[in-house]
Design a protein that fits this description.
By secondary structure, the protein is α+β, with helices and mostly antiparallel strands. Helices cover 30% and strands 30% of the residues. It has 4 helices and 8 strands. It is globular, with a radius of gyration of 16 Å.
Length: 189
């Protein structure tokens, strides 16, 4: 991995297209992109930019092209103590407890660069941070059960399903639906 310039806008594009692209129209996609960008900017760990990796509790990783630094992949790693994290409120208004820590989330790759090992590289970097810098031997993530390619990728990398639960979401058509979410864990060696 190479160090690239900070481009939260491109990261927001990749995340929005990856998580909302198929379920929205042009206008709602732009709204989701803005919400994603604002969320990234508000949670960007500016207060610990000069800390060593071992002291950071939240890390954003971006993969970029070596030739021009264009962001083509993104992932987050969160190791904040659960007691410091307020319960999340789903789009339907129900309270969802935060997942266990350390927690890898928001993994997305630009569609033009998928299936080239970039997701695997980001995942392995997250695992390395957990093990090398934080001294932990496990990492968690959540994935939609219907996302077969992601579930297969994670299982192929050694992640096991710990829990399966239904979570309510609101679709782009303002329709409330339940979807099955898998909590996965990997023991790092």
């Amino acid at each position: 991995m190479h160090i690239i310039s900070l481009d939260l806008g491109k990261a927001a594009d990749i995340l929005t297209n990856g998580f909302f692209g198929e379920n929205t129209n042009f206008f709602t996609l732009q709204i989701e992109r803005l919400k994603t960008l604002l969320s990234l900017e508000s949670t960007f760990p500016r207060n610990n930019m000069n800390q060593s990796t071992s002291k950071k509790s939240r890390i954003m990783l971006m993969a970029g092209l070596q030739s021009n630094g264009q962001v083509i992949g993104f992932a987050e790693l969160d190791n904040r103590p659960i007691e410091n994290i307020p319960p999340m409120t789903s789009k339907t208004g129900s309270t969802v407890p935060p997942p266990p820590r350390p927690y890898m989330c928001n993994l997305a790759i630009d569609a033009k660069y998928q299936r080239k090992g970039i997701a695997t590289s980001l995942i392995q970097n997250c695992e390395d941070i957990c093990q090398t810098y934080w001294g932990l031997d496990y990492v968690y993530l959540k994935v939609r059960k219907e996302n077969d390619s992601a579930v297969q990728l994670y299982q192929g990398l050694g992640y096991d399903i710990v829990e399966s639960r239904k979570e309510k979401t609101v679709t782009s058509k303002k329709k409330e639906e339940e979807e099955e979410i898998l909590l996965m864990k990997k023991k790092l060696n």
